[in-house]
Amino acid sequence: MVSDINELLTIVADAEKHLSSIARMKVTISLSFEPDEFYERGFAFLKPENKECNLLLDIVSMNFGVPTVLVRSKKRAHAEARWAFSVIARKHVGWTLTQIGDFLKRDHTTIVHGISSAEALMETPNEYFAIKMKKIETDFLNTKTKE
């Protein structure tokens, strides 16, 4: 039984690494705490009411080549994925800075910084970030309208 959140994150990250080679996989996780406590311990993104943001998180992860669990990591290499997620969640899902911060396990001021960093990066001569942002936004809106 998994009782440590960090252990669970490690297990999930390892599973995501191997998912590309596995056609179907059923994972059952037994937790030693109630669902509400589970959400409070950093897994708010699994709540059913976060369906749109989970979809967006999957699209961002796919476009940046970062497993969904790592989008929430503290490594600088994953910051741009968080920035992209924050911009689109704010613009198209209508979430507040605090809601985005809770979802990504960050303070709302970090989200403000990320959004301004993303906007600055989109204005630079290097267009790779702007192209990724446009693709993510298009994919998200297309997928959202299909549902």
Radius of gyration from CA coordinates: 16 Å
CATH superfamily: DnaA protein, C-terminal DNA-binding domain
Number of helices in the DSSP assignment? 8
Fold-level CATH name = Chromosomal Replication Initiator Protein Dnaa, Chain: A
What does this entry look like structurally?
This protein is mainly α. It has a single domain, classed as Chromosomal Replication Initiator Protein Dnaa, Chain: A (Orthogonal Bundle). The chain contains eight helices and no strands. The protein has helices at 5-19, 35-43, 51-64, 68-71, 79-93, 97-104, 108-122, 128-146. The termini are far apart. 21% of the residues are buried. The model has no long low-confidence stretch (mean pLDDT 78).
Q: Key features?
A:
Chromosomal Replication Initiator Protein Dnaa, Chain: A; globular; mainly alpha; 147 residues; single chain
List the helices and strands and how they pair.
Elements lengths: L4 H15 L15 H9 L7 H14 L3 H4 L7 H15 L3 H8 L3 H15 L5 H19 L1
Helix pairs in contact: 3-5, 3-8, 5-7, 5-8, 6-7
In short:
With 147 residues, the protein is an all-alpha fold. Helices cover 67% and strands 0% of the residues.
